[in-house]
Amino acid sequence: MNGAVGVNDTVKIKTEKVNGYFRIYKVVHDGDNMEGDWVSTAQVIKV
Asked: Exposure pattern of 5-40 as b/e (b: 16+ CB <10 Å)?
């Protein structure tokens, strides 16, 4: 996930199980871009 996304941003999610536009109401970014994995965990509401 993009580290620039934040609360109240609208994102499009397209997977086998989920497809549509969602508003982020909580997001946590963990990791760094220098080494290891970058992980973003977001809680979203369908718009």
From this structure: eeeeeebeeeeeeeeeebebeebebeeeeeeeeeee
